[in-house]
């Protein structure tokens, strides 16, 4: 059994150690400890300042490179997309600044943005699947070609394709923009049928928990089917986004071997420079995974010229009556 003397000795030892520490800290060890800590703080401050300077210099170089690309872009394009109508289809998580940059680069290449449709969260949200399933039957009634509309997702994609590639349809857009649960926002109605389109996505996905990741996988699957269907219209589409992470949209598209052309590095000037060339490559029947991120097949698209638009289908000439025999 532990007696009182044991407790007394323990308390004395504790206070003795405390007293020795105070004496040493305030006496012979005070200066060395203080000098050491001061030196470490000064070194950390110096390292921080050096890193800030390096970051400032790196950002300055990036800004100069971006300005150089902007000034050379019109000369590089040399009217590449002259007379070509391009539609923008904006995914729900796309940044407004990226959409603006895409529109500007199309214009710099000589093309025109003649339609912009912003897809809302409800267009792909798993929680709205039942609503989209019910709506797809109604949408089919307004499609001029129902061959693509094999699932609710492809039906919605066919509706978007009809709006931007064949011309505005008030009844169809009215169904998709119903006030209670709008699936799209028509930011710029199609003034004339587009020849090609750019699907504008987002940057790298942020870290997700297990539940968020499962929902994201379902959403990505729907987006991939949407892009595949839209790619069958006119001269097709180019998907612009990120392939930095394993779960990023472009990484998933490329991993599945889908024929949808992609350009990664969204938000960078070099990726914007590739977009017009990617559109022209798609018009010529070439699909690639262009950029420097995961599963890219080439750094830049091939340099091609815009092919002549398909000739309109002409009605057969009326038969000419043979002259009556004399």
From TrEMBL:
GO terms for cellular component: membrane. Residues 303-326 are annotated as: Disordered. The keyword Transcription does not apply. Keywords: Coiled coil. GO terms for biological process: copper ion homeostasis. It comes from the Bacteria. The keyword Metal-binding does not apply. This is Copper transporter. It comes from Mobiluncus curtisii (strain ATCC 43063 / DSM 2711 / V125) (Falcivibrio vaginalis).
């Amino acid at each position: 059994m532990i007696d009182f003397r044991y407790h007394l000795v323990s308390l004395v030892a504790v206070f003795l150690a405390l007293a020795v520490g105070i004496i040493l800290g305030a006496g012979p060890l005070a200066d060395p400890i203080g000098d050491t800590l001061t030196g470490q703080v000064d070194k950390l401050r110096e390292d921080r300042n050096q890193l800030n300077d390096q970051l400032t210099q790196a950002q300055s170089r990036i800004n100069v490179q971006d300005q150089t690309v902007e000034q050379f872009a019109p000369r590089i394009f040399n009217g590449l997309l002259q007379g070509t109508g391009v539609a923008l289809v904006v995914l729900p998580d796309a940044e407004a600044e990226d959409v603006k940059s895409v529109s500007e680069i199309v214009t710099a290449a000589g093309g025109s943005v003649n339609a912009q449709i912003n897809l809302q969260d409800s267009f792909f949200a798993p929680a709205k699947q039942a609503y989209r399933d019910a709506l797809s039957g109604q949408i089919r009634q307004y499609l001029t070609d129902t061959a693509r509309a094999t699932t609710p997702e492809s039906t919605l994609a066919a509706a978007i394709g009809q709006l931007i590639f064949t011309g505005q349809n008030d009844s169809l857009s009215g169904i998709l923009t119903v006030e209670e649960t709008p699936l799209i926002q028509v930011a710029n109605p199609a003034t004339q049928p587009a020849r090609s389109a750019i699907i504008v996505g987002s940057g790298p996905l942020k870290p997700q928990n297990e539940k968020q990741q499962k929902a994201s996988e379902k959403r990505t699957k729907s987006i991939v089917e949407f892009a595949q269907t839209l790619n069958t219209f006119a001269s097709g589409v180019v998907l612009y986004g990120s392939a930095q992470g394993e779960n990023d949209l472009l990484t998933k598209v490329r991993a599945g071997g889908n024929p949808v052309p992609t350009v990664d590095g969204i938000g960078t000037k070099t990726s914007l420079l590739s977009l017009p060339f990617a559109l022209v490559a798609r018009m010529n029947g070439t699909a690639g995974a262009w950029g420097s991120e995961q599963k890219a097949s080439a750094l830049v698209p091939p340099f091609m010229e815009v092919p002549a638009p398909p000739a309109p289908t002409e009605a057969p000439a009326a038969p000419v009556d043979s002259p009556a025999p004399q």
